[in-house]
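Protocol step 4 of 6: structure prediction from sequence.
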Amino acid sequence: MASSGSTKSRSKSKQITVKKPKTNSNSSDKITASEFTRQLNQKISAAELKKIERYFKSGVGQYAEGDSFIGVRMGEIFALSKRFMNMPLNEIEELLESPIHELRVGAVSIMDFQARDKKTTEERRKELYELYIKRHDRINNWDLVDRSAPYVVGGYLADKSRAVLYKLARSKNIWERRTAIVSTFYFIRKGDIEDTFKIAEVLVNDKEDLIHKATGGWIREAGKKDSKKLLAFLDKHAATMPRTALRYAVEHLDPKKKKHYMELKSR
């Protein structure tokens, strides 16, 4: 579901020095935001920074305007996050506060690892979910949502009311709307697809390309569980839904059906 761009970044990422939170100088054995930051700084690469700035649209007026990057590969962030997966909640929030994108990726990755862990208590799952919702202002890019929403939000809501997702789907904030649909991936994996299609109904005519991609991609995945529901959705919306969403939705249909629905959009 990734979205990339070639527009030159206008962010100040190259001039930023990552400030480490105040802590004991002797913190190498502590699972803290400060120590995570110190270790992340050791992985900075100028070459990677150039790649990232081409990939994320952080120019003026673009979806990630003002976001700042330092140049660390996502794989390295995920690996470091796994080593820090027992980080306390207040330290995770400290990472979320950072203006540096890679540190926020670390924060949501730690949240995801904790949410996935079978040993995590229900109380902690609730705390992770509440932190996600409370600090959605810091979970403010498509990769941050996609990295954490399925298990942190979807996993927590699996046996609970999902009303919050419908509220998020109607939000003016693009990232909250993306959370609404992306969170349902957890439900899809369990064979529970009703909310995916219902939330897709709310988002089907959204104006943002990143919502088109998520909506189309998620109903495609839900359609693997129940092809009749996907076809019914397409029968109703294919002629009017955004072309990007439709293209993602029909991706795995047989060529004849795919051609049929794409031609409906062309009429």
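Step 5 (inspection) to follow. Residues 15-160 form one domain.
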